Amino acid sequence: MTLHADMAELLAEAGILDVDVEDAVADEHVRSSAYQRVVSVIASSRSRDRDRAIVATILRDPNEISSKAAVVALVDRIAMKVTGPAEFRQWSAELLPEIDQLKTEGYREFIRRRIHDWLFHLSIKDGHVPTPAELAKVTDWMQRVLAEKSTSPAVLALLAESANTKKTRNIAKNRAGSRKLRTQ
To answer: Mean pLDDT across the chain, nearest whole number?
Structure first.
């Protein structure tokens, strides 16, 4: 398929009528913005049946930066709405063959790491307390997300002690300290 046909299909499927297909094809910024809107609509759908096909269509874009950003946004949105790590693992496994079609290894690896990070986050949300070795395998970004959002004293203590960056360690220490004050 052509970029024009792909763009027209994605916009139609998402019900986005105010984006001119010609403009999106001609301007990567318009196209990137359109992808983000498509991802927003698709992620809010209850059905996950078309996600792999949509990702495949987006990843055919010759501008891999825009297509990678759209897929990462979809991964982030789905991770925030799934019921747990098993559901996310199954959903993301269906996307991996499409992600492997990206020409740039760094982009493929970035998406794989983002999926790994979210699986880690979801397992913690599900009650798992990670080891320092497990924590070391996630990105600084995910460590910071956990430091800012986790409500688990054990996770905050681990991050305060073992996070990769001083900023993340400090966020975790401060949040762990403020949680202790609230529970007293």
So the answer is: 94
